[in-house]
Amino acid sequence: MQSVLTSLKTVESDQIGIIIYSTKQQEVVCSFNPDLILPLASAAKVVIGYCITNWVERGLFHWSDLIEDFQLDKDENSAVLFPHIQGRTSLSLGDLVEVMIACHDSKAADSIVQFCGGWEKVNTEINRSYKHINLSSNPRDVENKGRISEVLSVLKAIFEGYHRHPQSWLPVMNGLVRPQDHFEGIPNHMLNHMSGGFESLVVDIGILGEFHQHPLLYVLGANDLPNRYTNNLSDERIVESIKLMYNEYNIQRKKDDIRRDGNELQTS
């Protein structure tokens, strides 16, 4: 993973962090500034999905619960990705969570949170386990933030929860597997992630690799960047880092394939 770090460290900022978890080794395999606290921007919606799913598993809510008069952000792309829900006056909690994540939709997020009791209630629930995560209705709010290591723990809980109880975690996963930004050289189905950012910030939360072949889980972020609207070097370096991470995953997968083929020959 040294190549990933080397690339990421060329980003022009002192506020850079990354943490990568191997689901095969069941341990963190790369970490740089894991205690860094960053604004989460739209990526906070993954944490909202995590919180709501926990409540669903405890029976406080149900994915079939109907939210009436929900709102969608017309500046986001739900009209393209979910044309069949336009004009609806009610939508199930599960469907709206999927839309929220897939479309980075802050109005959908607020509709969900208000239905479930409000932002203070959501933050109280999150802070039971993650003291350095705080969520707000405005994704650009600097208090909408989280510690990189804690956000990775949330992603790990989502991934493991899906494997234990797929129906419970399906709305969150359905949102994550529909990212709108794809990277050349990485098959679309191999990168399931949620990005966020604004002119001085990039944050990315992702599952990299085949779901059933020990993917890598990662959280990376950089703050206090040169204006990304006029300088794209930081974005290029971050994309390069994710591509290098994918190369590392492919090395692991090829070794697993060779080992599996060898075992099959021995038993045949």
Question: What labels would you give this structure?
Answer:
19% strand, 9 strands, alpha+beta, 44% helix, two-stranded antiparallel ribbon, five-stranded antiparallel β-sheet, 268 residues, globular
Q: Could you explain how this protein is built, in words?
A:
The longest helix is centred in the last third of the chain and has 35 residues, at 233-267. The model has no long low-confidence stretch (mean pLDDT 93). The chain contains 9 helices and 9 strands. The chain is of the alpha+beta class and 268 residues long. Helix 1 runs antiparallel to helix 9, helix 2 (44-57) packs antiparallel against helix 8 and helix 7 (148-164) packs across helix 8. It has a 5-stranded antiparallel beta sheet with strand order 2-1-9-8-7, sandwiched between helices. It has a two-stranded antiparallel sheet with strand order 3-6.
Task: List the SSEs and their pairings.
Elements: H1 2-8, E1 15-22, E2 27-32, E3 37-39, H2 44-57, E4 66-68, H3 78-81, E5 90-92, H4 93-103, H5 106-115, H6 119-127, E6 145-147, H7 148-164, H8 166-176, E7 191-198, E8 201-208, E9 216-223, H9 233-267
Antiparallel strand pairs: 1-2, 1-9, 3-6, 4-5, 7-8, 8-9
Helix pairs in contact: 1-9, 2-8, 4-5, 4-8, 7-8
What is this structure, in a nutshell?
The protein has nine helices and nine strands. Strand 1 and strand 2 form a beta hairpin.
Low-confidence stretches: none
Mean pLDDT: 93
Structural class by helix and strand composition = alpha+beta
The major sheet is characterized as: 5 strands, antiparallel
Helices and strands, in order, run as HEEEHEHEHHHEHHEEEH
Number of strands: 9
Q: Please state roughly what percent of the residues sit in beta strands, choosing from under 5%, 5-15%, 15-25%, 25-35%, 35-45% or over 45%.
A: 15-25%
